[in-house]
């Protein structure tokens, strides 16, 4: 016969039962609104506006205490927030216009780039096998003709890319203005909010906090990337007797571009390979192999660093990034750490994880 079950005291029985936190209806409604908004951001291609707004908001919120510590009146606080907002938006806009001016520097800039490209081609011609040399252009006119033919064959895609670039810039500008307006509104004393408005505000604050933690993690990642690149350029290549031009510039560009998730590495790696190609095809191949190996390793380190900031394991973040990339492409890969950090914060606040 089976032994009779022992009597379990009621106090112990209550402790063994799973604790279920009742979800307030206003919070549930706020969750649904927040999730719908985040989905629409990806579906309507508004991620750049969201990131620009969050960036301006967090910069204003971070820098405001350093300006306000000697100010006492509410009007002075508001003036300081407006002043910071104008400066931050101005600097970010100047940076964007600077990039546009760099890539559209007129005919003189184009001639310089063509001359540099011919130097690379001439250098490659002396090192490549004969059967590959026939595919290289003979002079600048050949390069211009190839470029012209490519533009004619892809005129539709080029026009579409131009329209998308203008659209992205408008989204970024609108996002920065909205971020500044929200930061300005946050400087006012908050009135007594209704339950749903209070819950929505809480969701927005958690999203902003998730963005801040991911950005700090991205700065660490950029520093790591810069250190590894500097070791390759300043130590590995010099030990091999190779000196690349613009080494310091490439290191600075690597750090600044590394602040951009995913695409930043593509920018810095392309620059390094092109500069290495001006020295030797084999140096360019070595740089490409080194960068691919390093960044494959760094891909997992990134997940570890970001995961530490958002209290997530590496495999969780990697899985989220893979799923988001499959669903939304490159924007999904960029948004995945922020979205996952926000979702994790929500679940942690409810005591579910």
What is the structure about, briefly put?
By secondary structure, the chain is mainly alpha-helical. It contains 14 helices and no strands.
Mean pLDDT rating? 75
Strand content: under 5%
Q: Mind summarizing the main beta sheet? A: none
Shape: elongated
| Count of the separate structural domains | 2
What's the N-to-C terminus distance?
42 Å
Report the total helices.
14
Q: How much helical structure, as a percent, in the residues?
A: over 70%
Tally of DSSP β-strands: 0
Overall structural class, as computed from helix and strand content, comes to mainly alpha
Could you name the ranges where pLDDT drops below 50 across 5 or more consecutive residues? 11-20
**CA-based gyration radius:** 26 Å
Order of helices and strands: HHHHHHHHHHHHHH
């Amino acid at each position: 016969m089976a032994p009779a079950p022992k009597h379990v005291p009621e106090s112990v029985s209550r402790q063994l039962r799973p604790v279920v936190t009742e979800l307030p209806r206003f919070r549930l409604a706020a969750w649904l609104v927040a999730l719908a908004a985040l989905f629409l951001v990806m579906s309507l291609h508004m991620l750049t506006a969201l990131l620009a707004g969050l960036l301006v908001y967090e910069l204003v919120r971070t820098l405001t205490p350093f300006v306000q510590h000697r100010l006492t009146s509410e009007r002075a606080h508001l003036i300081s927030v407006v002043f910071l907002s104008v400066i931050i938006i101005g600097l970010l806009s100047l940076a964007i216009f600077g990039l546009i001016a760099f890539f559209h520097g007129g005919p003189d800039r184009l001639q310089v780039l063509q001359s540099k490209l011919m130097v690379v081609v001439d250098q490659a011609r002396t090192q490549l096998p004969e059967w590959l040399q026939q595919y290289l252009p003979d002079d600048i006119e050949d390069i211009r003709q190839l470029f012209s033919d490519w533009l004619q064959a892809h005129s539709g895609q080029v026009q579409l890319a131009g329209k998308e670039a203008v659209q992205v810039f408008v989204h970024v500008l609108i996002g920065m203005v909205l971020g500044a307006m929200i930061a300005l509104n946050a400087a006012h004393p908050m009135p007594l909010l209704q339950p749903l408005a209070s819950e929505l505000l809480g969701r927005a604050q958690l999203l902003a906090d998730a963005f801040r933690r991911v950005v700090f993690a991205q700065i660490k990642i950029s520093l790591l990337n810069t250190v590894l690149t500097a070791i390759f350029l300043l130590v590995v290549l010099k030990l091999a007797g190779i000196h690349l031009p613009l080494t310091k510039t490439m290191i600075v560009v690597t750090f600044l571009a590394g602040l951009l998730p995913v695409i930043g590495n593509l920018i810095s790696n392309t620059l390094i390979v092109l500069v290495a190609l001006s020295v030797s095809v084999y140096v360019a191949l070595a740089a490409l192999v080194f960068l691919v190996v390093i960044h494959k390793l760094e891909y997992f380190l990134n997940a570890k660093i970001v995961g530490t900031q958002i209290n997530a394991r590496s495999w969780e973040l990697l899985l989220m990034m893979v799923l988001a990339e499959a669903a939304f492409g490159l924007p999904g890969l960029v948004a995945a750490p922020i979205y996952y950090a926000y979702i994790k914060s929500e679940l942690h606040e409810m005591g579910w994880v």
